[in-house]
Amino acid sequence: MNTRFLIRNRFIAVLIVIVLVAVSCKTNRPISRDTSWTILFYNVENLFDTTDDPNTSDEDFTPSGKLQWTSERLETKLERIGEVVAKGSPSLPALIGMCEVENRAVLEMLVASNRLVAADYQIVHRDSPDERGIDVALLYRPDQFQVSEQEWIEVKLSKEGDPNTRDILYVKGKLGGEEVHVFVNHWPSRGGGEDVTDVFRREAAQKLSDKITAIQSANSSAKIICMGDFNDYPSNGSQREVLKSGIDKTSVLCNLMADDELRGEGSYWYKGSWGPLDQFIVSWSLLDSTKGLGTSMESATTYREDYLMFTDNQNQQRPNRTYAGEKYVNGYSDHLPIFLQLQRR
User: Fold this and answer.
1) pTM for the whole structure
2) Domain span holding position 101
3) Do 183 and 248 have their domain in common?
4) Contact (CB, 8 A) for 225 and 254
5) Which CATH number belongs to the domain containing residue 113 in this structure?
6) Model confidence over 31-87: pLDDT tens digits?
């Protein structure tokens, strides 16, 4: 074969490799295989900056506050979250739903951190009316998910004093070229008693249900993913009766964490028992799918690893949180993260 021809072809091949490497470095994004995707939800427990916001009750999370929340402690917290995201799945998730974040500034610090910067995560966030200033947010990889619409669903509570709570975040976009409807939730807490506060979570559930009904009325096969800290378990009325989620086809939605509750497992430890306050709830169209995006009951898991835990005085393993009361213990969160796998069928 002509020597000049061989040299030319090798030169062209080298140029192609150089161009591909340059493009990869410039975009700084992992190459997506477009056959499976990971979704993460994580209640990160009080991801605050160190600055006092005069409009919210965040004074404890300042250097001079009672928790002595310093820049060093914030940096450690961000490193902890990045570690969970990076270790919890084979590749950095396409979508990350989060709650208990104070503002966009801490999210920008998180996505720029060493473990996450390669994914070029984009942020969907706004300040909620919550009195503590904690919000929900969605991080997404633009090489895997393309946002077309976002909406903040206000939840006004029939509550004397402060009727405000976290908004429900709705994002519509394309994952693997297919339209997906994503909701990120953090429903009202049980502070004050489960029975007393039940009505507030039912009100949040009704807001979510109304939006899902509108989506399914327009497209009965719409693929819907709800994730969040619902502050209720799958068997509670807000889920079963209002949102109509369950594990049989009489339910409007499938609660992928319902079996965890039956087994005494979950993401949250309370008074010696585990339970799934953090859940993935999906439309049946994702489970019944024979083409395009799909998932299964087994694809939703709670990520429970030793490095996220500590052993208490009763020899019970619990999530290792950032503070134990007012004592800084340098942990991760009082909730464990949950993961969902989607596949192309």
Assistant:
1) 0.90
2) 32-344
3) yes
4) no
5) 3.60.10.10
6) 445 689 999 999 999 999 999 999 999 999 999 999 999 999 999 999 999 999 999
